[in-house]
Structures
1.
Amino acid sequence: MKTSNYLGWLGMSFLAISAVSVQAADIRVGFGLDALTLDPGNHRSRETETIVRNMYDGLLTRDAKMKVVPELVSSWKQIDPTNYEFKLKQGVKFHSGDEMTAEDVKFTFDRIIKKDMIDGKSSPRAGLLGPLKDVTAVDKYTVRFTLASPWAILPSMLPFQELVSKSFVQKVGDKAMATQVNGTGPFKLVDWRRGDSITMERFAGYYGGSAEIPPVGQAKADRVIFKIIPENASRIAALLAGDVDIATELPVHMMKQIESSKNAVVMKVRGTRSFFVSLNNTKPPFNNPLVRQAANHALDKKLLIARIMQNTATPINGVLSPDAFGFDASLKTYDYNPALAKQLLAQAGFPNGIDVTLDVEGSFAETAQAIGSLLTKAGIRTKVVVGEGTVLRTKWLQDKNKTGDMWFTSWGNGSLDPEDIFAPTLKTNDRGNSAGYSSGVVDGMLSAASTETNAAKRADLFVKAQKQVNADAPWIFLWVPEDVYGVSKRLKGWQPSADSRVNLHRAYIQ
Amino acid sequence: MNLGKLLERVFQLIPVMLGVSAIVFLMMLVTPGDPVDIMLGEQQATTEQRDALRKDMGLDLPAAQRFVHFLKNAAVGNFGYSYFHRRPVSEVILERLPATVELTVAALLIALLVAIPLGVLAAVKKNTWMDRLATLGSLLGISMPGFWFGLLLMLVFGVWMQWLPISGRSDIASQVPIVTHFLTLDALLALNFEVFVSAVSHLVLPALTLGLPMAAVLTRVTRTSMLEVLRQDYVTFAHAKGLTTRRVLFVHALRNALIPTVTMAALEVGSLLGGSMIVETIFGWPGLGRVVVESIFTRNYPLIQAAILLYALTYVMVNFFADLLYTVLNPRVRL
């Protein structure tokens, strides 16, 4: 065979194979990280949860507006500050065909909250259930959750947990749960090639999903494939080539490329992560509130959001996202005013300005450089120091004596409840309080809010705490970015959700 | 080579492995960052939960004790537990290793198949346009950063022409049972031509990205070495004896000229192993390199230690085989 013929033949075979391998009813997702395990009780990884959630349902879930709604339960109520009762839907089947009962719910949660329950080790998800002490099966379809102390956010935290089958786990063992799936979700596991792809197919016995999120019924797609493509550019290339239908975590600078393509669009949704520059409140110069206020006035957030974030972020004046419970929209805005910033610095005793450093992780260096140059213009002469995330977290969160000046950082708030962002980042000595901020008033209000069961009173406590923090300005308040996705035009019935899940129950290819 | 010499070489491995283990351990010890902190992230965990995790990971013990513990266990093939994956380290490594080996072997084959003929051609046709083209090509290959070259190939053959898939090992891998963990072999064993072509087409771009820069280096080495050999008296004598040019080139000259190429190829296996980390990330290739990179970021000490030990062992073994190959290429070489 002549060389040219041979090459032609080779090319034709590849084309033929590519054509065969693309089936219209399959949805392919280009995803950055692989699942660590398929056992919903034995990981602490957001990516794992996103993948697993398509095969396992939970007692509760969230709708497109992030409202907590029933999924496997028909209703729930709070009996007293430490007791909740859930009524399960009847006739819900696991992939194995067994019916889900209260015993499965009890088993699922015992496995997470009790010690050494998963192959002799404790579940890394226990922390997500706070003071949950006991789960009891009242009857076949009723379960009661008992807390050791009042914890208002239990319903907001339950969408993070998925239900396993007691008999299945007991039959196959904990180890096998890492690779075998028997959930109540819309898709069944077909094959998991670690690091490469996870393939799922429609579960014909699916009960239909949450009644609050129509349409209810079986999954529309025949198969769903999560393809693991860690590199951003490769994920986008795969989308443009038609290899995947959804590319997650699209970098904003690549949006134009997608927008100008014929076969894909950009979809955005406001995420749940608040960004801020933590100012070291424990030592000069940022132990002076005037200097902290000056820093807030020194930044032109609108400009930064427009130029660097390509308008994919919402500015904030406090810790909470506008979507969070108890968000106060009336907080004072620190307007961009470099002259005022200089004046505040002079008032604080720094008429000639100050010299400080700004720590940042490599991936955000560009943003930090822009922030640094704006601060410098206002007299806060900033040197940007790029470091590795792990090292910076140790420096700012573990070390007793805080040595840095400023840290460009963020904190996630998947539950959209202040409890898991406000308290950890701003309560005195709490685990995420990088600024070393300490306010008796705020501490008191946050403690009261964490046990307050009346929603209106609780929201009020958070509003007051936000006003105090806004006035004290322990950080330079920045923004909540949007999650950006590249989505094939042929994919219908799917939209991104703020909790960054990719639930494909209702999606289909047209 | 006699058995005594062989055993001597095997015993030489022991200090090398010990040295590598100690260096890796020390480097991890001085690198800041707390694995417990990374694992728990922003989530709530009590001090007891943190301490329990630290104890489970064996991080509560003094460094020296941890090192001895690691050596003792490694000696019997136990590399510990990857808390990040919540599985034994050896399981994670063995699962990912075949993909990396498949990719590295493919890249090595591409490098040798391109470099040797091109190097010989450039030497024989010295100072002609063919020689200049080969030199220019190899210069380009050496200068281009791997990740950029990979993205370029992806753009041209994946996005524009859509001839080759962009990421993964195969879309239809699930159609063949896992026997050897090498997908191309498994597909052949199952006589599934469709999966085989899919596997090969997925392999082409990453293997080219990894293999062509190496081919560039080897082309230059082969050319230089071939030029030198062609000037030797015995080659002139062979020509004078009336042997055909082909016979002189491939039987007499090339065998000797290949010794530096083999040495270089063996040394370059180190770059292949290192480069595979980048190429695997770009092409979503589910190999060991990617897991190692992830492990470095998550301070997954047991996995890093085991993987680097494996890399070191591979490197030493490949160079050992290169030494053996010298004796085949030139029987006068004695080890």
2.
Amino acid sequence: MSKIIEAEDLTKVYPPNTKAVDHISFYVDEGEIFGFLGPNGAGKTTTIKMLTTLASVSNGRCSVAGYDVKNQQSEVRKAVGLVPQEAAVDTGLTGMENLLLSARLYRIPSATAKEKANELLELVGLTEASRRMVRTYSGGMRKRLELISGLIHEPRILFLDEPTLGLDVQTRTLMWDYIRGINKERNTTIFLTTHYLEEADSLSERVAIIDHGQIKVTGTPSELKSELGRNLLEITVSTDSDLTRAISSMNGFSEVKRTGTYTYVIGMPKIEQSLQGVFNGLTKLGVNVTDAKLEKPNLDKVFLNVTGRSIRDEVVDSGDSFVARARAESARH
Amino acid sequence: MISETWLLVVRDLKKWVRSPAWLIASLVQPILWLVLFGNAFNPTGMIPSFPGSDSIKNSILQASFGGAPNYITYLTAGMLCFLVITWATFAGGPLVMDRSLGYLNKLLVAPISRTAITLSLLISSILKGALLSVILILVALVLPSGLVFSPSFGVVDLLGIFAALTLLSVGFLWLFMILSVRAQNFETLAAVGSTVGLPLLFASSALLPVSSMPGWLGAIANVNPISKAVDIIRYLIIQGAVSGSVLTTVTFDFGLLTAFVVLCTLLGVVVSNRGLRME
């Protein structure tokens, strides 16, 4: 598989010295769905902006669809589609008009554009609404239109910045289906940012977790889970005497923590044998297990492990290009 | 670049036509100004009627108001210019909105020229201004003691009027486009536009003759590009340009106005393209 995006030490500094993205290196394979995961203000949108030529690259290099983002901007622009976090469609136009405008801006002849627009509208179930003003659309309809408005010129890579932000669960699941469909049927590479772990887990083949402008880990969701997450067994026992030593002396349970008078949390590498081992061992000691809860690793754990637990203020990369720009501008003057 | 500019012009005009409040306001406003200013500032209206007052009024119009048959005829040139200046002030509004809503990113990521984005707003503003100017002229014609064209007024003069209006609006359009490209919100644009618009009008020959102004104001009015456009249009309306001495004056004013436009355009294109470049 060839690499359609390759970034090396990609850095964005907003003046005077806000490092929004700090020497990140990663690649995206052609045809995959790549999830860019991170808390608010981590540098996700800024990265997308550099990859789509909206922001200049302060340092490092990056190629998108084989073109250099610094020197071959117009080629990059033709190869990519962008669905920004904010309005990607004009609410004062109809759905159809929005698509045709997008298409014509990419010099697609109007007959072809109409054909493509109809096909895409049908894909996301907006055929009937296509003659209505977008301002009459519901949030979900608008997101669907935004999704296909980035596709009308058949880009090789589609950038989706928080595609399901603020959508209800049903619409979100529907959007996921569309995104998968676009990826499979059109073989469009998809680069998506999200701070919904579930979304990255369910859609992406590979994930990078970015925080404070730096990539913390990269890998498939299952790799990350097995590397960073562990199975945690929480048990409640009938006795109040300290069993920490007894449990940790059992085979393979070095990590034991007493979390209450009757409760312990045990880290375990493999689920099946370990469960058996714990219960057998405790029975031998004459201890009754009254409750047990097994927590399997999930991306949430990985995420919190990597990014810490504090809530982030949305600063540089709030997706609000406005804030970032305003800061950059005011700093410049 | 032409086709993408036109696409964006069509987008802007569509939205204008579809927003009835905006459309009606832009139609009614110039008419209100013409009627209100036309009555409030009418110098001959300030003279009470008495035997022989008509001849005094006529000599005032003759001496200070360029020989206009009435004040509205004099004022029409000023109001036409005010109309296009007002449009120029807010022409960048859609750009500011696109930026704050995020749609601008969608345009910037498309393989189109940056100039197409600003130029489209310029063109659509000129088109709207031209349409509203025609309406303003028609209304001025039907007002009581309204606009009277010189008997020698012809098609060339009409084209001259629109040429002067276009030049004036292009100049101010680029100036305000610089602001729009840098403005972070619509309020900035509205604040500057509404603060600058009326003073520019009063400090020009649009409402009253420069000769009636105190020296300092007259000096400002004389270098105000609005005065140049107003003078051209006024000559064309009241006298027709074809006669000798008037033609020289009009040509000279056109020259000054063109210089103003060239300067503003160079500045505008460079600065606004910088404002739209990458973060």
